Amino acid sequence: MKKTVILFALAISILSCNKTTETKEFKTAYIDTSKLMEESTEAKDIEAKFKDKSKVMGNQLEAEVTRWKSEAANFQKNAQANGQAWAQQKGAELQKREQELSYAQEGMLRQLQQESGTELDSLVSNYKKVIKDFGKEKGYDYIYGTGEPASILYAKDSYDITKDIIKIVNDKYKSTAKKEDTASEKK
Questions:
Q1: What is the H or E stretch that residue 31 is in?
Q2: What phi-psi label fits residue 83: left (phi over 0), alpha (psi between -120 and 50 degrees) or beta?
Q3: pLDDT in tens, 153-164
Q4: Angle at 86 between CA 84 and CA 92, to 5 degrees
Q5: Which InterPro entries does UniProt cross-reference here (predicted)?
């Protein structure tokens, strides 16, 4: 009987505590992170920069591959005329160059991935800061992200602040670019 009275008193005290606590609604929003990266000027500039760099590096490598193919074609023409010893030596040289070209291509891809990854990581870090500042300024309790690794499966469109953030990061990037242009003109 004592246990029942104690449990009953405990239940009443918990219920009365719940009634006195204030229920607060949270101000929330979300950002489509894929759209942010697609539509931000800075992200587009980074993508274009590495596309151009890839093209230049690829052209250099392509010239080497073309030379190698030419040598391989000449090798096949001259193999019988120059004898087996020459063919084995030249074949080994061509195989070695082919392997070097393959390593060069892998190295180029690795370098491009590393450099672009570093710049994109920095960009994402800057965007997180912008979003955090925006959230504080506008009084948000939570700002969620959607995109490829979707963390929100549904939200009302009215909670979407992606356009606001894109405008802020693009304006910030434009003002930074103008400052850099002005500084380089003074030099």
A1: strand 28-32
A2: left
A3: 667 788 889 999
A4: 100
A5: Chaperone_Skp, Skp_dom_sf
**Is the alpha carbon torsion for 141, 145, 149, 152 positive or negative?**
positive
Q: Under DSSP, is residue 158 helix (H, G, I), strand (E, B) or coil?
A: helix
Cα separation, 45 vs 54, whole angstroms = 14
Residue 30 pairs with which residues in a beta bridge?
Answer: 144, 160
How many domains is the chain partitioned into structurally? 1
pLDDT at 151: 67
pLDDT digits (tens, 9 = 90+) for 65-113: 899 888 888 878 887 778 888 888 888 888 999 899 899 899 999 999 9
**Amino acid making up residue 165:** I
Rounded CA separation 129/168 (Å): 12
Six token digits for residue 27: 């101000």
Residue with tokens 């070209």: 101
Start-to-end C-alpha separation, the chain = 90
Q: CA of 116: how far to CAs of 12, 107, 168, in Å?
A: 61, 14, 23
Spatial contact of 105 and 61, defined as CB atoms under 8 Å apart = yes
Domain that holds residue 46: 2-186
Rounded CA-CA distance 116/111 in Å is: 8
CA atoms of 49 and 120, how far apart (whole Å):
12
